[in-house]
Structures are given as C-alpha cells and as structure tokens.
Write a structure and sequence with these properties.
Blueprint: E1 4-11, H1 15-26, E2 31-35, H2 41-46, H3 48-68, H4 85-109, E3 113-116, E4 118-123, E5 126-131, E6 134-145, E7 149-151, E8 163-164, H5 166-169, E9 178-182, H6 186-198, E10 201-206, H7 217-229, E11 233-236, E12 239-243, E13 249-253, E14 259-263, E15 266-269, E16 273-275, E17 289-290, E18 293-294, E19 307-309, H8 320-334, E20 348-350, E21 355-360, H9 363-373, E22 377-383, H10 388-392, E23 399-405, E24 411-418, H11 425-433, H12 438-442, H13 453-462
Parallel strand pairs: 1-2, 1-6, 2-3, 6-19, 8-15, 9-10, 9-15, 10-11
Antiparallel strand pairs: 4-5, 5-6, 7-16, 12-13, 13-14, 17-18, 20-21, 21-24, 22-23, 23-24
Helix pairs in contact: 1-4, 1-8, 3-4, 3-6
Bound molecules: flavin-adenine dinucleotide (FAD) and nicotinamide-adenine-dinucleotide (NAD).
Length: 469
C-alpha cells in the first residue's frame, strides 16, 4: 500500500538533494525529500561549513599569536591569546544549526514535503522509508539518488578511540598535543593546518610523493613551504601500518622502507570518501556502476529510466557546488526542460594557507588538449609580491596564472595560490563559462587595489603586455 505518491522523490538532503528538491518545488513539481540524519548533508553538518568555521578560528588564533610574539612587521602587540575550544566548537555548531533551519525553511517555502528516515528501494518506482513512526511507502515517477559520501576507513586503522575521521576532528573540544594526519589531500591539509595553527604538533603521512597530488606542484609549493613554517612534518611516500602496540600512536613505513612509530593523542584518517549506497536496496535495481560509484550520463540519468543520481554518490569531483549544479539540472529535466551537463568548468578550492584555486585546465592539461585538437597554448603568471593589495595585507605569497589558446586567446584555465584567493574563483569561473578571451579580461576594469588585479595582470602577461612586472 502506498502512503505517499509524488512526481519527484529525492533521497538525501545534502547540497545535491536539497537544491534539487527546492528547484523542483519552484517548478511546481510535487516533490518529496527523504533524509536519514540532518538536512544539509555532509557539507553543512560535518564538511564544508564546520571545517571553514574552525579554519577561521585557527587563522584568528594564529594572527593573535603572531602579534603576541612580536612577529608582525607593523608593530602590533597583544598579550598571548587563549582559546576556549569548547566555545569555538559551540560557535561552529550554532552556524550549522542556523543553516539547518535555513534549509528546512527553503524546502517548506518551495512546498517540498520532508520525510525523516532511512530510504530503501523496493523497485525502480517505490521506496520504503523507515521513519520513527514505522515504514512509509513512497511511489514516485522520478527518483533522484543523492545519498552522498562517507569517510574511507583503513582496515588496519578503524575509526574509534584515538583514530578519528574529519567528523570527529571537527567535534574535538580538547586540542591534541600531537596529531598525526593520514592522507595529505583536501581534508588532511585543511584540518591539519588548522590544528597546527591552534598549537598541535602535526605530522602528515601521505602515500604519494607529494601533498595535494591533485594540483600541480607550482600551486602546492607555497602550501608545503608554509606547512614547514608552521612546524608541520610532512612524510611523503609513507604508509600507515596500524596503531602502535600500546595504542598510543601510529606505526608507519617511511619512504625508505623503514618502520617508525609516531606517538599521537589523535590519528586523523583522511584518505578519501566512499559513496553511501549501503542499505539503499540497490540490489533491487539494475544500475550500471563505476567501481562503487553510480554511473551517470550527461543528464545525470542512471541505467534505469526515471532514476537519476547526483553528487558524491556519482564520484569525483566530490564537491558541494557540483552536487548543487547537478541537482538544479535534474529538477529541470524532470520538469520537462531540455537540459544536459554543459558546464565549462567546476572550480576547485583548497582552503589551506595559502589557499589554492583551480578553474578549468592546468597548463599540462591544456597542452594535452592542444596536442589532440591541434592548438598551442600560452600562459601568463603574475606574482602577488607585485600586487599592492597583497602587500597591504602582508600576504605576498603566491600568484595568479592564466592558461589560454595561443591562436584565439580563449581562456582555458585560471589558477591561483595565495591568501584569500578563494574569493577569486567566481571571476575565474565566470571568465571560462562565458568563453572569455585574454582581451576580455585585460579590457575589464579591475578595481584597485584588489587581489583580482592579479587576474588582469596575468592575462596582460600572457599577451606580452604586462604593466606591473
Ligand atoms: P551529502 O552532503 O553527503 O548528503 C547526502 C545526504 O543523504 C546525507 O545527509 C545522508 O544522511 C543522506 N542519506 C544517505 N543515505 C540515505 C538514505 N538511504 N535515506 C535517506 N537519506 C540518506 N566540498 C566543497 O565543495 N567545498 C568544501 O569546502 C568542502 N569541504 C569539505 C570538508 C569536509 C571535512 C568534508 C568531509 C567534505 C567537504 N566537501 C567540500 C565535500 C562536500 O561536503 C560534498 O561534496 C557534498 O556534501 C556532497 O553533497 P551530496 O549532496 O552529494 O551528499
Ligand atoms: P583526498 O582524495 O583529497 O585526499 C586523500 C589523500 O590521501 C590523497 O593525497 C591520497 O594520496 C592519500 N592516501 C590515500 N590512501 C592513503 C594511505 N593509505 N596512507 C596515506 N595516504 C593515503 O580525500 P579527502 O581529503 O579525504 O577528501 C575527500 C573529498 O572531499 C575530496 O575528494 C574532496 O572532493 C572533498 N573535499 C573538498 C574540499 C574543498 O573543496 N575545499 C575540502 C574537503 C574535502
């Protein structure tokens, strides 16, 4: 017996799912969203938002500590800072709570029905939800799987006790004296940097030859250098073997094959995320998979008609803004619009210190694309050391780099590394999405003094017309 019948059922209220449901509601579709935990998903509750809140706390603390140590060149002095980590965590939780309420209000305004419980497919059109008041059967014309991802657990280092995931790290109310981070990717470095700034002695154990292997070395070098300055030990080419016999740290194999013990109050494991499909009843469907992820086409359709998948459950890049863009598109498709994935780029940001932004193609990727399509590329780079705003912020590390076609000057990629460059991602993404040429960027008046002028100057440099270097 069916309890609820609807046009669109969305499973999972993370950024992918809730945006899909809101858009569907706005388009007049009779929409239901099911969520087993809290509205907002990983991003809002244990990911993007809480991590950026704690990164902010750490930045403020470090600034105060530097001033107390007389380390600012502009003569600021304060007494040594003290942090009540419990209060910081409560402040972060307050932001999350406000945003949870915000998502609920937006869904209500779009007339989306929210069902709390664990969803499980019984067939392609029917889902059973285990709610607090018993099972509910929902029948839908279209279903969107937006069940997201969860931290990967290493078999020799299961979560529990001293071994924590990012979720545990964001809830710590006592600062670990020594923190070992396994995995020098996004989460490991964002959170590892924050803990180092707060005063933990941090060691990063990364299996690959360098940290953030996803970004090119020119971009990651300033991050590696700053980690050194913060006293973070980075062990690359190293493998985690398991806890020490007494359970007071981590045994690792270093790059030269030697075994070593790293004592630590906490071991933070951040070696990637896996799709959440357990208990979803996928065995009752016939979906194509891409490893453990759900395979989708350019309309986010799965192998079964009427079933769509969006966000982290569909694989890399596992970014909130990709999930949201997919969600919006699928809602429009279900409403009958002709849509397909046509985005020119998905900007990526690593909120380390300095921050890294990458939109579109890196020079290496652009060269490879050029070899296939028969074009050459040109690049232009502008250092923040020559940017007035960076100087006045006492943040001169880093640069903006533009990658363009040599023949028609079409901008193919823009990258930057530097303090505060995350906010430049919108300009970079817009330029690529609008099909800007170098001349469009150089011909736009960029307000002075701003970090954004670095973008204009990098484009000028690519054209051989740099003004300030
Ligand atoms: P999720 O956000 O994971 O949401 C899925 C939802 O589905 C969850 O609420 C879950 O409870 C629910 N669900 C699962 N199964 C069921 C079921 N059977 N029934 C009902 N409900 C179910 N990305 C960025 O773009 N920028 C960042 O700065 C950033 N920082 C991050 C920091 C950390 C520490 C982490 C862990 C992640 C970060 N991410 C960031 C990644 C980002 O959180 C994810 O890409 C994003 O949350 C994916 O959205 P989603 O909707 O696909 O899934
Ligand atoms: P990641 O893929 O960014 O990094 C994992 C790192 O762990 C890699 O460098 C990998 O080489 C290393 N690794 C893997 N196995 C290892 C092992 N056994 N020992 C040592 N190192 C090992 O994964 P993550 O940091 O867990 O983040 C997961 C996802 O969440 C990311 O892919 C990203 O999409 C998303 N995220 C995004 C942001 C952001 O947008 N700013 C922030 C956090 C997370």
């Amino acid at each position: 017996m069916t309890d609820i019948t609807c046009k669109l059922l969305v499973i999972g209220a993370g950024p992918g799912g809730y945006v899909c449901a809101i858009r569907a509601g706005q388009l007049g579709l009779d929409t239901v969203i099911v969520e087993s935990t809290k509205l907002g998903g990983s991003c809002l509750n244990v990911g993007c938002i809480p991590s950026k809140a704690m990164i902010h706390v750490a930045e403020e603390f470090e600034k105060a500590a530097q001033a107390a140590a007389g380390a600012t060149p502009f003569g600021l002095s304060v007494s040594a800072p003290a942090l009540d980590l419990k209060q910081a965590v409560a402040w972060k939780d307050g932001i999350v709570q406000r945003l949870n309420n915000g998502v609920a209000a937006l869904l209500r305004r779009a007339k989306v029905k929210i069902v709390h419980g664990q969803a499980r497919f019984s067939d392609g059109k029917t889902v059973i939800v285990e709610t607090e008041t018993g099972p509910k059967t929902i029948s839908a014309e279209a279903v969107v799987i937006a069940t997201g991802s969860a931290p990967v657990e290493l078999p020799m280092l299961p979560f529990g006790g001293r071994v924590i995931s990012s979720t545990g790290a964001l809830a710590l109310t006592e600062l670990p004296k020594r923190l070992v981070v396994v995995g020098g990717g996004y989460i490991g470095l964002e959170l590892g940097t924050a803990f180092a700034k707060l005063g933990s002695k941090v060691t990063v154990v990364e299996a690959q030859e360098r940290i953030l292997p996803l970004y090119d070395q020119e971009l990651t070098a300033p991050v590696a250098k700053h980690l050194e300055g913060l006293g973070v030990t980075v062990l690359t080419g190293a493998k985690a073997l398991g806890p020490t016999p007494k359970g007071d740290g981590l045994r690792i194999e270093t790059a030269d094959g030697k075994e070593k013990s790293l004592p630590a109050e906490r071991v933070l494991v951040t070696v990637g995320r896996r799709p959440v499909t357990d208990g979803l009843g996928l065995e009752n469907l016939v979906l194509d998979m891409d490893g453990r992820f759900i395979r989708i086409g350019e309309r986010c359709e799965t192998a079964m008609r009427g079933i769509y998948a969006i966000g982290d459950v569909t694989g890399e890049p596992m970014l909130a803004h990709r999930a949201m863009a997919q969600g919006e598109m699928v809602a429009e498709i279900v409403a009958g619009e002709r849509r397909a994935w046509d985005k020119a780029c998905i900007p990526a940001i690593c909120f380390t210190d300095p921050e890294i932004v990458s939109a579109g193609l890196s020079p290496t990727e652009a060269k490879a694309a050029g070899r296939k399509a028969g074009f050459e590329i040109k690049t232009g780079q502008f250092p923040f050391a020559a940017n007035g705003r960076a100087m006045t912020r006492h943040a001169e590390t880093g640069f903006v780099r533009v990658v363009a076609r040599a023949d028609n000057h079409l901008v193919l990629g823009v990258q930057a590394v530097g303090q505060g460059v995350s906010e430049l991602s919108a300009a970079f993404g817009l330029a690529i999405e609008m099909g800007a040429r170098l001349e469009d960027v150089t011909g736009t008046i960029h307000a002075h003094p701003t970090l954004g002028e670095g973008f204009q100057e990098a484009a000028l440099k690519a054209l051989g017309q740099a003004l300030h270097i």
